Write the structure tokens for this entry.
Amino acid sequence: MSRLENLTVLGAGVLGGQIAWHSAFNGKTVVVYDIAQDAIERCRTAHDQYADIYLSELGASQVDISAARNRLRFTTDLAEAVAHADLVIEAVPEIPEVKSAVYQEMAGLLSPDILIATNSSTFLPSDFASDTGRPEQFCALHFGNGIWAMNFAELMAHPGTSRATLTQVGEFAVEIGMVPIPVLKEQNGYIVNTWFVPLVNAAQTLVTNGIATPEDVDRTFMIGGRAVGPLGMLDMVGMKTAYDVLVFWGRESSDAQMSANADYIKEHFLDKGLLGVRTGKGYYEYPDPAYARPGFLDAPHISAVADIVSLMLPE
Ligand code: NAD
């Protein structure tokens, strides 16, 4: 058993909320920290939804759910949040300045033996190791969205991470039911985001450039057996995180199309308060998104061809 029984999660958003809930469900004592009280309220609401999922899909009992709730605390006070931590998992926005500032602020508050892991989607542990003030006790542990079903966790070191840290954090991952995936060298995006980000970016390009409707982009991916398409996946990721990733990497790699995709997401979603599944609307409306309804992937009636042609050749 690892010695990491007390977890603090920084950031009560989409992923922080899931990591916290899943860890508490698997017996860890968890403190969730966020700078925003309303984010904590949204996290509590998300936990109610996760409770339903764990009851209906994972065979959890009401006793299990109450025990998970009893192991969770929430705070907007960083010092209080980390006071009893063994492990801190950082899940604040995918903006390097924000992450660096949080690590620097936390560095003076942590007792010496506390370990830190970043859940960043696309940055390297090397980018923040010195900010933590304890580089040998820092690595990445990257979770997938829908943690209860996507139960892998990518483990990635930077050159200064100690073997003991990787061992403890890897054991923690196993204890909460994850399949640990070792990333053998530092890589922006680990394994999964090395292919996932280009996939959703390519899908977004088709929409940004008016090549296809969002529904048809997803149909081409889903026909043949996949449960959700890349634009449905963007709704799950959340538009804010998708925007942060595209805006940073568009600028960093001088990729004008990626930057245009970020602008599209800002104009069509962020500026309208549409953040995806979390707010009930993104490309699709939730619950009960159109792509999950019967008929979405069926061959239409022959009379529908006229409408299809009108989309291609507007009158
Ligand atoms: P999110 O926008 O849903 O949540 C981020 C939370 O951090 C918000 O609640 C915000 O109020 C809070 N926050 C902002 N500044 C803060 C600060 N200084 N201190 C504490 N909290 C602060 O973001 P998310 O999608 O949960 O992403 C969080 C991290 O997890 C990012 O690094 C992202 O790349 C990564 N991640 C996201 C996904 C995904 O599918 N969304 C998957 C894997 C990893």
Q: What stands out?
A: Residues 218 and 229 are 4 Å apart (CA to CA). The chain has two domains: 6-182, 192-312. The pocket of nicotinamide-adenine-dinucleotide is lined by residues 10-16, 34-36, 39, 91-94, 98, 102, 119-121, 143, 145, 237-238, 240-241 (CB under 6 Å). The chain has a mean pLDDT of 97.
